[in-house]
Amino acid sequence: MRKFERQKAIRKLIQQYSIDRQEDIVKLLQEQAIKVTQATVSRDVKELQLVKLPAPNGGYQYSLPAEKKLNAEKKLKKTLHDAYLSSRLHESFFLIKLLPGNGPAVASLIDQLKVKEIFGSLGDDDTVLVIAQDPRAAKEVQRMLLEMVS
Amino acid sequence: MRKFERQKAIRKLIQQYSIDRQEDIVKLLQEQAIKVTQATVSRDVKELQLVKLPAPNGGYQYSLPAEKKLNAEKKLKKTLHDAYLSSRLHESFFLIKLLPGNGPAVASLIDQLKVKEIFGSLGDDDTVLVIAQDPRAAKEVQRMLLEMVS
DNA sequence: TTATATTTTGGATAATTATACAAAGAAAAA
DNA sequence: TTTTTCTTTGTATAATTATCCAAAATATAA
């Protein structure tokens, strides 16, 4: 999906550069051959819950909502990368098989992401069950999580 | 100082209500007999480093920059309230006497506030020395900290 | 496939926020 | 005190962001 990639790119951009205008995001995306308007970026900023943070040195800067969430994502990515074995999608469920011992941590990290499509997740020793709002949402979740593995 | 009180009121307001426009802050301040324009609120928002956070349920909401800072202030207030003995101001220095054992904690909490007027602070067992940018800043700091005691 | 529903997007603009400038106010100096 | 300097504020407006609406794109159903 185009949208998800773009949002990912936006997250990367605001971490990399000091950006204080959505128009600048538009320009930087164009350099990556991603064409969008400020209107779309505004929507993305909202969905990603990015904030325009008054910087300590005067001026402003777009920023991730909380370091927490960021850290959760980093850890999840790392853990998935290390412990991921396989996964299956069925209706609203996305089931992940992991190396033994990693289930609870991964389930907890997924919860911390607070992705709106995810209703909840739970993990036993080597398995995590992610429950999405509906089958379509589950597909989104699958895409998002598999993205992290690679 | 008028400004400091107003900013304090603003902080309180955004914690109490779900506010998504600076104009609403203006209105709510008026109910407290504090008259300001949106322009001033915009400056206050910047100084307080408040952010307009996209809310999880759609919509927006002004919010404190990080819970961290808030917690630090709460703890500091509580500790000062419990352990404060006396204080003195001299040039750029503000010296606080505390019940024994509270110095390090208070110094650390003051640092966490990241008030721009404060250059740094250090504490031994029962004393904290706050070093301000200059004598005027020190007065500000004194005012702010004594405010917390009461 | 074609038709239908859903999602995403851009254009235009409304809504909101930030700031230049000048004036008022407060502090410091004389 | 008066004068000078620094800070704070409002007005007006520039700059930026959010959203309405319609079109395009995408997915789902038939």
Give structural notes:
The structure is a homodimer of 150-residue chains. The longest helix of chain A is centred in the middle third of the chain and has 17 residues, at 67-83. The mean pLDDT of chain A is 82. The first copy, chain A, is elongated. In chain A, strand 1 (51-54) and strand 2 (60-63) form a beta hairpin. The first copy, chain A, is built from six helices and six strands. In chain A, strands 3-4-6-5 form a four-stranded antiparallel sheet. A two-stranded antiparallel ribbon of chain A has the order 1-2. In chain A, helix 4 runs antiparallel to helix 5 (103-113). Chain A starts with a helix and ends with a helix. In chain A, 52% of the residues lie in helices and 22% in strands. Chain A has 150 residues and is α+β, with helices and mostly antiparallel strands. The A-B interface holds A 45-54, 56, 60, 65-66, 114, 116 and B 45-54, 56, 58, 60, 65-66, 114, 116. The structure holds a DNA duplex (30 and 30 nucleotides).
